[in-house]
Amino acid sequence: xxxxxxxxxxxxxxxxQMRCSVITDFKTGxxxxxxxxxxxxxxxxxxxxxxxxxxxxxxxxxxxxxMQKRGVTKRNVVALVNTHAHYDHxxxxxxxxxxxxxxxxxxxxxxxxxxxxxxxxxxxGIIVPExxxxxxxxxxxxxxxxxxxxxKNFHTPGHTLGGCSLLLSVxxxxxxxxxxxxxxxxxxxxxxxxxxxxxxxxxSNSIKTKLWPLEPDTVVHPGHGPMTxxxxxxxxxPFVGDSSEENHRFIGKYL
Length: 255
Ligand SMILES: [Zn+2]
Ligand SMILES: [Zn+2]
What we know:
The protein is an alpha/beta fold. The chain has helices at residues 40-49, 64-69, 87-90, 93-100, 111-115, 117-122, 200-211, 230-236, 245-251; strands spanning 7-13, 18-24, 30-34, 57-58, 76-81, 104-106, 136-137, 142-146, 149-155, 164-168, 176-180, 183-184, 187-188, 219-222, 228-229. The structure holds zinc ion (2 copies).
């Protein structure tokens, strides 16, 4: 089911400036958190009471009053979802599970990586709790209904073995895709990180077969750095783009 005028918030968290995305359905108040990696207190305070520094980017209300005027009395967190298991994306999942008691979704090929989250955070001087264990699997090309919010998952390995990209279909505007560290504005995820299964050929193939077929105006929310669109990256990305004239003709109108 498509969402109308989605309420999306980006929280840029931790020393690696990772993007945690929060999506809320105005009709029901149902809310999901994608990549709850760090700064869980900040994110929870905002979701619950609009207190604290709030998101770095938002399409939604900025106060309780404003939210209630738009028809949502209370937000209801229904699921936690991860693009992959690097600690900057998953380190604070145990705190979110403790607070909300909801299912956590991850691709099974990142389960091993997830067991290392605490250790790899510590190697950068970051303290996170004992790693959470995901209780629900993300599978390729499957649509998930998290409360009233539907996301289609694409398995996009290459940065990690279990890397995923989650597509939010929107009825009255461009779709949005949450790609973790698979694709960045003008770049792609690293493929040299330890214990991760990174592979540039696999990554490039994931992007070209799973992401490039999406609508060119689809808004891309990467795990780090600015947002972009599928069309811009397909045409201009120096690692996986294709600036051929034919592609330019097709996509140029969306730039
Ligand atoms: Zn990563
Ligand atoms: Zn990352």
